[in-house]
Design brief:
Layout lengths: L2 H20 L5 H15 L23 H16 L4 H29 L4 H12 L2 H10 L4 H15 L3 H14 L7 H12 L1 H20 L6 H8 L12 H8 L1 H25 L7 H15 L7 H15 L3 H28 L19 H25 L3 H9 L1 H15 L7 E3 L4 E6 L15 H6 L5 E6 L1 H6 L24 H13 L3 E7 L3 E5 L3 E5 L1 H4 L23 H16 L3 E5 L8 H17 L5 E7 L5 H8 L4 E4 L4 H5 L8 H13 L2 H4 L2 E6 L1 E2 L4 E2 L2 H12 L5 E7 L7 E3 L1 H7 L1
Parallel strand pairs: 1-14, 2-3, 2-13, 3-4, 4-7, 7-8, 8-9, 9-10, 10-13
Antiparallel strand pairs: 5-6, 11-12
Helix pairs in contact: 1-4, 1-5, 1-6, 2-3, 3-4, 4-5, 4-6, 4-7, 7-8, 7-15, 8-10, 9-10, 12-13, 13-14, 14-15, 14-17, 15-16, 16-17, 17-19, 24-25
Length: 755
């Protein structure tokens, strides 16, 4: 078989290796983001750049330039015309990545030949890339799209070597329009060409084509430029997972590590650029220069993830074959091999932590890697080794001989430091927010998808402990669930009644029944959450919330704020309150709930008018539920006063005091909340007897994934400490979720004292 036939065979094997697992695998969170993004853009015509990220939430939403969004929408549309099953959608989503990945290997082969390498060496480089476990995993199993900017970056190098400047600039512009980090290569190219051809030609032939590509792809979103730029620069403020900054960030904090890391990268880049373009003895080989710049990025930037190696791999492979010094070639290959081993170790650990099963789409736990046992240790070890090897690779490629020699002399010490960091950082993490061991601990979930897999019957023990060991769990369901309940069968799909939904498979009524009774058998009380508004649609991490089709057809039964008009009469001569309460109680007894949790509107119950509005529902619920079924009412504001709150207590077992939401306090959406609020609460408590005080719980605002807010752990702790000093019966967590990025730990000292 000729060389061309051999290459064609390798391409066929590479395609087969990528296509085979692609429809049945994927990173749970990234797949969720890709599919939700395409849904919002294609079906809802929503500008996703106009919706803010959850500050402090480790798993961001879409924060990339638009071309990947356009591809997502296109592949989602094609998949929908072919039935739109999950497997088909995932396959078509990954096809552009897989094609780009294989084409990148072919462009690498052409570039190697352009650089003067022989057929055998060019074939070796293409084979190393095309059959590389790292590139195969990232494109076909993970579903991350770094292969696309890798293709256009490698093509830009080939075009530059061919003397086609404008085409090369446009290609690098396309690479940057998918992911921003290829732009780090631009300064070196510009400085080299300015020195050779002058500034005017560089502006015309390089800068303008590059900038035009970025402008064209961004045009639809420039009307809201601040939001657009904020999303694109989102990643500047956090630390990646495949760098020594992962370890250092644990000690100094992610924000500090990010600032220091970017400052170090900027300084190192400036020094290397100066050396590259002022030292007459330095090589003018463009490929070597760009490979050196990329290693600076790997060695110093705080935002390095394992998939970034896909883009740098063609440059690094070329450098390992074309370096003019045999010893340096061997050193580069050695460091690149160790970097690969670290990457594969990282991936092995991530498989155990995350899993790459589409059945878990969107269900990514946010507990720290430090709590993930051996798998977390593998990831952290890989991060430390990768950071160290990136530094050594940088020194080899940028000919920093003196610094390299001094580091080599201290390699033993450096290794000990790295190992010490790893050992220290894999010790158990802090407890996070400490919660008092009060007798009533309620965890409201946004939906079963927030915590459970379809078919679950219990909360995983580690997650249960990280959510404060609740005594009650609340599962909210939309109004249509209760109204439709008489027509539902065990096989009926009920995910459409959830406030928060994932695209990872529908829940049936039987699944919900099993979950409720499984939780009860484990000793938990399970309440059904009952909304009092006809709709609450939210755009955050996809289209979330609910809207009742029944109320949409009976608009006279809701007010201008979408609140249900409980006092109005239906055509059947019963009040809405009686009708709704009967449907709720039917579901409670049929499924086996221990009671009802009435969810007031976000603005809460702040006036006598609000009490009179909700009172008919509470009267009917109490009439339809026996004393064994608990009734909770939330959103109660101290501004009501003691008499109005006692009025609510006559129908409810517990009322939940509306606590300040820190986010709304600082943005002045609720300026009254704060010291004045606490004084009003103390005044109300003074008016109530001791028995009534045992009916009062306080809310702990943690995270609302659907609404898009997350309270910093310090503020949550202050909230808990303040309210627990006044109220001893218990608390309600809004909202308990696998996505909370810190632990909620029941105070063990308080537990011992209670015992």
């Amino acid at each position: 078989m000729g060389r061309g036939g051999r290459l064609a065979g390798i391409v066929a094997v590479a395609l087969a290796a990528r296509l085979a697992p692609s429809a049945y695998t994927g990173h749970g969170w990234d797949l969720f983001v890709w599919l939700k993004t395409s849904e919002l853009f294609l079906n809802e015509q929503i500008n996703i750049y106009s919706y803010p990220q959850l500050e402090g939430f480790p798993w961001g939403f879409y924060a990339y330039p638009p071309p990947w969004l356009y591809l997502l929408a296109g592949t989602r549309y094609i998949a929908s015309t072919l039935g739109g099953s999950r497997e088909v959608s995932i396959l078509f989503l990954k096809l552009p990545i897989i094609v780009a990945d294989v084409l990148c290997g072919l462009i690498l082969w052409l570039t190697a030949k352009r650089l003067g390498l022989g057929e055998d060496d060019a074939y070796k480089l293409a084979t190393i890339y095309l059959l590389n476990p790292l590139t195969i995993f990232v494109s076909s199993i993970w579903g991350m799209f770094d292969a696309i900017p890798a293709l256009f970056t490698t093509l830009a190098v080939y075009l530059l070597l061919s003397g086609r400047w404008s085409a090369a600039a446009a290609s690098l512009g396309l690479a940057t329009s998918f992911k921003i980090y290829p732009v780090i290569l631009l300064p070196s190219i510009l400085l080299l060409q300015i020195k050779k051809h002058g500034l005017r030609r560089v502006i015309t032939n390089l800068i303008l084509p590059f900038a035009c590509i970025l402008l064209i792809v961004s045009l639809p979103f420039l009307s809201d430029l601040p939001s657009y730029l904020d999303k694109l620069l989102y990643h500047r403020s956090n630390v990646g997972q495949f760098t020594y900054w992962t370890l250092l960030g644990i000690f100094v904090g992610g924000e500090v590590a990010s600032v220091v890391g970017w400052a170090l990268f900027t300084a190192a880049l400036a020094i290397i650029l100066y050396k590259q373009h002022t030292d007459p003895n330095r090589s003018r080989n463009l490929t070597m220069m760009l490979a050196g710049i990329f290693t600076i990025f790997l060695a110093t930037s705080p935002k390095i993830n394992v998939q970034y190696l896909v883009l740098g791999l063609p440059l690094l492979l070329l450098a390992a074959w074309i370096h003019d010094d045999p010893e340096s070639r061997r050193e580069i290959r050695r460091r690149l091999t160790l970097l690969h081993m670290a990457a594969l170790t990282f991936i092995a650990g991530s498989i155990f932590i995350i899993g790459y099963d589409p059945a878990n789409m969107g269900k990514v736990s946010n507990l720290s890697l430090l709590e993930s046992g051996l798998a977390g240790s593998l990831v952290l070890v890989a991060a430390g080794v990768a950071g160290w090897e990136s530094v050594k690779l940088t020194l080899a490629l940028n000919k920093l001989t003196l610094l390299k020699r001094r580091l080599d002399e201290r390699a033993g010490i450096a290794s000990i430091i790295v190992v010490a960091l790893i050992v220290v950082t894999v010790l158990p993490s802090p407890a996070g927010v400490r919660l008092p061991a009060q007798p009533v601990r309620v965890a409201i979930i946004e939906s079963p998808d927030s915590i459970f897999q379809v078919g679950s019957t219990s909360i995983p023990p580690d997650l249960y402990r990280s959510l404060g060991e609740p005594t009650h769990v609340v599962i909210p369901l939309s109004p249509d669930f209760f109204i439709d309940y008489p027509q539902l069968s065990p096989r009926s799909e009920v995910s459409r009644y959830f406030r928060f939904r994932l695209d990872s498979g529908g829940w049936t009524l039987f699944d919900l029944f099993k979950l409720v009774n499984g939780l009860r058998s484990s000793g938990l009380k399970v309440l059904v959450g009952v909304f009092t508004k006809s709709k609450d649609l939210l755009v955050s991490y996809g289209m979330q919330g609910y809207e009742s089709s029944w109320f949409r057809g009976n608009q006279y039964l809701v007010d201008k704020n979408d609140r249900m008009a409980f006092g109005l009469m239906l055509s059947s001569n019963v009040s809405l309150a009686e009708f709704y309460a009967r449907r709720v109680s039917t579901a409670v007894y049929s499924i086996g709930f221990d009671g009802v949790y009435v969810l007031s509107p976000q603005e809460g119950l702040v006036s006598i008018g609000d009490v009179e509005w909700i009172e008919p529902l509470l009267v009917e619920l109490r009439a339809n539920l026996d004393s064994s079924k608990e009734v909770f009412v939330d959103g109660v504001d101290p501004l009501l006063g003691g008499d109005a709150i006692e009025r609510l207590m006559s129908y409810a077992d517990y009322i939940v005091i509306r606590s300040p939401i820190w986010l709304r306090e600082i943005t002045s959406e609720e300026p009254r909340l704060g010291p004045e609020y606490m004084e009003q609460l103390r005044s109300v408590l003074d008016q109530l007897g001791d028995q009534r005080k045992t009916q009062i719980l306080y809310s702990v605002n943690v995270m609302d994934f659907s609404s898009g807010w997350l309270i910093p752990a310090l503020q949550v702790q202050l909230q808990v400490d303040t309210f627990s000093s006044l109220l001893s019966r218990g608390f309600v967590i809004y909202f308990a979720s696998r996505y909370i990025p810190y632990r909620l730990t029941l105070d063990s000292t308080a537990l011992r004292s209670v015992a």
